[in-house]
Amino acid sequence: MHNCRLCCAKCHKLFDNKRTFNNHICPRVFKRSRCAPCGKVFQLPSSLKTHKVRCKTRTLCYVCGKNVRNITQHLLTHYPQKRGKAIFKCAQCNKPFSYMTNLKRHITEVHSIEVRYRCQYCSKGFKSKHNLQVHERIHVGVKKHVCNICEKPFLEKSYLKKHLRVHSQNDC
Description:
alpha+beta; 6 helices
């Protein structure tokens, strides 16, 4: 039988198996690492890395108050008839969403007071990158939506649609 022995680099103590060696060496050599989402503490960085693959941030269920790993799957236990339908509701306005990511985006763009993007021309603040890009077209003058009747250019497709009503009213 082959007998591998492991030696501690600090105190030179010998160990016959990896488990007892790791239990000895970790508190002295490695600093303890904490998993941010769940708070669990690990002595070995490799143990934390393995744990992170399986660990996901827990979310509080608004129906039963449980902290769950997969809120989408969990909510289906409360609402089995809602499979594929809106099961997430905004706590501030009750708007329904089918996916948690869409709810998070909604909260950031609609209810957040935090300004994440600023116009490089006038410093006006925006919550979403898309709204900033739309706004900056005013300064740059890019009018890529053109009326096929009178060739008048517009910044936004919605402006063009509104304009087209003028032509349809003149036809009456």
